[in-house]
Amino acid sequence: MGILNVTPDSFSDGGVFVGADQALAHARQMEADGAAIIDVGGESTRPGSRGVSVDEELSRVIPVLEALHGEVSVPLSVDTSKPAVMRAAVDAGAGLINDVMALRRDGALAAARDLSVPVCLMHMQGTPETMQDKPCYQHVVKEVVTFLLERVEAAEAAGIERCNLMLDPGFGFGKTDPHNAELLKGLPKLVGHGLPVLAGLSRKSLVGRVLGRAMEERLAGSVALATMATMHGARIIRAHDVRETVDAVRLVNYVMAAQGA
Ligand code: 9MG
């Protein structure tokens, strides 16, 4: 899943891809590099960020989805937790919803049910503005798995088909570095519940803090973590550096599938 942030303050793109033309060029490059999904987001969810209004988010995301629709052949995903944005985005060509709030906003379950597209349910403790203040868990893996299974139950109760759900532990969303490490080691416990698991570790603070790397120096660390997530069963890797990440995932898959010579 290639990341296409269309926010002026985005986590690592710094607003470079804000215009629809630049967004299309970047999406085409990610597709050529092997992305199977392009995830378009108009609201930053980096630690400390504040939300934007529905109108602001719509004005960022919809022109980009319209520009991409029919021009790239891989499915488009919309990274949003707002029901109105979900509805308009699917209307504009998005075929997947990536919700960092796991459909907890009012009206989000109903929107996802009506739209009948696949949804990624992500775990987050707190909100982006405050989530890194004091993340706290007794058993991070158990708590994240329990939360996600409860969201699956809520989604199914609302009429969303189980086959349309995927799960994401939300690396960096209300987690310390040790929490993120535990979650990555414990990923098979989430994978074991049978739904596809998405992992997003690309350029995250974990890489920066552990290795002492600035944002633009996190490629090797991000690919290492993507490799580990794939080996632990993640089926979708959300990444900025698509070509390098796809190479790593393809090699893991090759080695895992190889039979004894
Ligand atoms: C929008 N966004 C930022 N980081 C993410 C992650 O790790 N997973 C998902 N699903 N979305 C993310």
UniProtKB/TrEMBL annotation:
DNA-binding is among the record's keywords: no
GO CC, alphabetical: cytosol
Catalytic activity: (7,8-dihydropterin-6-yl)methyl diphosphate + 4-aminobenzoate = 7,8-dihydropteroate + diphosphate
Domain Pterin-binding: 1-250
CDD domains (alphabetical): DHPS
Annotated signal peptide: none
EC number in record: 2.5.1.15
Annotated family: Belongs to the DHPS family.
Source species, domain of life: Bacteria
Protein name per the record: Dihydropteroate synthase
Cofactor(s) the protein requires to work: Mg(2+)
Taxonomic lineage of the native organism: Bacteria, Pseudomonadati, Pseudomonadota, Gammaproteobacteria, Chromatiales
Annotated GO biological process: folic acid biosynthetic process; tetrahydrofolate biosynthetic process
GO molecular function list: dihydropteroate synthase activity; metal ion binding
